[in-house]
């Protein structure tokens, strides 16, 4: 073949496929602004609503002109750590869920599918049983290490074989590891009543009863994980096209998955340690925002960052008042709210494609 013919063939090669366009950029920016407004309103509701309801002007005065002798102001300040934790844990779960669905190319991916929740839970149980850990600040490090170890093991298992860590192999390896870790955890819990009593309050999932001593040590890993995941939007768009096409576009698939997985582990491990295994937040929100953003992860990730904490805080606020004088943990409320919404999203179908 002559050089001229070769040049013509190369010129005629079809362009690489691209992510299908979603809504126009202007409307997406407006929707993101609306999401921020919703989050601000839910945050104010978290300060104002509870067993002792407060007016919004009282909340504002407590935040801007705090009076230590005012009981209402003290209530608002007591709710600040709980609200901040809801914002941080919700944002972490939303970002991690969106990134996990992109990496695994699995619409049902969440922290449970690759064993992160099971690894964190087993590590917490081991910390309680072996080392006598009883504080939430102690749970953080055990849960984080357990989540990281589980993610590494799953990826190594899935990487075995000719095709590497494919989405199906990741899901199968995660499910198998989760089953084994849960079995080990149950062996410990059955043999130790004291460990069971301490663990069950964390296992339900919630943001009540936490203070700054729990939140502040977790900030570095949360911020680092969020920065990593937010920077992977273009990588996730390429991975969504399939490994072969992503490689054709110059993407180093293994490196992209590894970087994104690091961010996911940091976010999921820390959020699970702080709030327990809260479900559905990282599963539903990325599906819901695709109706507004289309399949572009450069928009899905920021929307998930904003709307996931709004869902978690809303669930927590509802749980405070639904069974007065007691309250329902946020982990239970997200399941009650999230399951019907997820069924509706699945039935709606078309807008939630990856």
TrEMBL record:
Q: Where is the composition biased (Low complexity)?
A: 1-13
Record region (Disordered): 1-21
Spell out the subcellular localization from the entry: Cell membrane
Q: Which Pfam families match?
A: FecCD
Q: What is its membrane topology?
A: Multi-pass membrane protein
Indicate whether Plastid appears among the record's keywords.
no
The answer, when asked if Transport is one of the entry's keywords, is yes
InterPro entries named among the record's database cross-references: ABC_BtuC-like, ABC_transptr_permease_BtuC
Task: Tell me which UniProt keywords the record has, alphabetically.
Answer: Cell membrane, Membrane, Transmembrane, Transmembrane helix, Transport
- Per the UniProt record, which residue ranges are transmembrane? 29-51, 83-100, 112-132, 139-158, 170-191, 212-231, 259-285, 297-322, 328-346
Please give the family membership noted in the entry: Belongs to the binding-protein-dependent transport system permease family. FecCD subfamily.
Q: What is this protein called?
A: Iron complex transport system permease protein
**Organism name:** Arthrobacter ginsengisoli
């Amino acid at each position: 073949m002559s050089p001229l013919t070769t040049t013509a063939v190369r010129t005629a090669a079809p362009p690489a496929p691209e992510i299908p366009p979603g809504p126009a950029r202007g409307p997406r920016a407006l929707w993101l602004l609306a999401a921020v407004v919703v989050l601000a309103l839910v945050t104010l509701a978290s300060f104002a609503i509870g067993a002792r309801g407060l007016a919004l002007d009282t909340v504002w005065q407590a935040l801007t002109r705090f009076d230590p002798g005012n009981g209402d102001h003290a209530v608002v300040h007591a709710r600040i750590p709980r609200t901040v934790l809801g914002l941080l844990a919700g944002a972490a779960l939303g970002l991690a869920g969106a990134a996990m669905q992109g990496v695994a190319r699995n619409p049902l991916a969440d922290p449970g599918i690759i064993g992160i929740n099971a690894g964190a839970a087993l590590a917490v149980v081991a910390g309680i049983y072996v080392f006598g850990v009883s504080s939430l600040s102690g749970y953080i490090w055990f849960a984080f290490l357990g989540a990281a170890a589980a993610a590494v093991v799953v990826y190594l298992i899935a990487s075995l074989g000719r095709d590497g860590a494919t989405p199906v192999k990741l899901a199968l390896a995660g499910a198998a590891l989760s089953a084994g870790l849960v079995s080990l955890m149950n062996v410990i819990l059955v043999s130790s009543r004291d460990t069971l009593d301490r663990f069950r309050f964390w296992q339900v999932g919630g943001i009540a009863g936490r203070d700054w001593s729990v939140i502040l040590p977790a900030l570095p890993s949360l911020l680092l994980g969020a920065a990593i995941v937010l920077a992977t939007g273009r990588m996730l768009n390429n991975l969504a096209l399939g490994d072969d096409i992503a490689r054709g576009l110059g993407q180093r698939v293994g490196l992209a998955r590894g970087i994104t997985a690091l961010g996911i582990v940091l976010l999921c491990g820390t959020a699970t340690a702080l709030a327990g295994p809260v479900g559905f937040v990282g599963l539903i929100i990325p599906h819901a925002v695709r109706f507004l953003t289309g399949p572009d992860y450069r928009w899905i990730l920021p929307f998930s960052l904003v709307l996931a904490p709004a869902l978690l805080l809303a669930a927590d606020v509802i749980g405070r008042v639904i069974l007065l004088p007691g309250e329902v943990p946020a982990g239970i409320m997200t399941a009650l709210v999230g399951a019907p919404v997820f069924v509706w999203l699945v039935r709606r179908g078309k807008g939630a494609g990856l």
